[in-house]
Amino acid sequence: MAFNPERGDGTLTQESAVKTVDRVALILRLLSDAGEQGHRLSDIAEKSGLGKTTAHRLLGALVQVGLAYQDVRTKRYSLGSAAAALGRAASIHHIQSVLRPVLIQLARETGDTVFASIREGLAAVCIAREVGSFPIRTLTLDQGDRRPLGVGAGSLALLAFLPDDEIKMIIDRNRRWLQDYAGFSPEELYKLVARTRETGYALNEGRIVPAMQGIAVPIFGRNGRPVAALSLAAIRDRMGPDRLPDLVKRLREEAKALEGVLEPPFCEEPAAVSSPVGA
User: Looking at the 3D structure of the chain, how many domains does it have?
Assistant: First the structure.
């Protein structure tokens, strides 16, 4: 039965539903533009052209589902945690969509397994993987796997090119978590960081799976910080001195082509996400 506004049966026509979505989207954009300072109800009503009653009703619904937040002291509205989660998911999906063709091409060229990772607080997270044609596969990471920053080639590439004080803070806060990974003590990580900076790429010479090796390079954003890492894993025999330079060169070429294209997802800073075992 179609909705009749005069009858008020509580159902929505398609037109009124679209109108409501438009209003909600406008309010979310206003809250996004306001940043941490937020907006008062009167600000939202004025900037959106909505009546205060309508604006208050929509803001209340957004607060209820976590897309908006009201400071009880100032009464100002800001974006909520659910909005931040949606933004981060959209950012990750964008990075995945940009990197997926690159991974497919590299896996096809090399026959090896190629990964893409991003930073999440104190961790590196694998967001994509493509498996090459070589019969012996190196599936050391699944999409969604998390490791402490510095553990593994891609993770090390994300860590090594951060500022020194940030690297120190990350390693200090990950000390307990690093105990789960032999060969990645804080002292050893500092050595790996120095070597990675010197060579320009990260190398994991069987520290996680003895017969497997991995290499990785960072992809830098416009601010000069690592946004993501491209890594490649293979059995040790396929990463000898005759082949390793060519593999590193291909990763660097792809990373350079993507430089400045990607933006980091939200919650990149270590204060935002702690390690699973605490800091």
Answer: 2
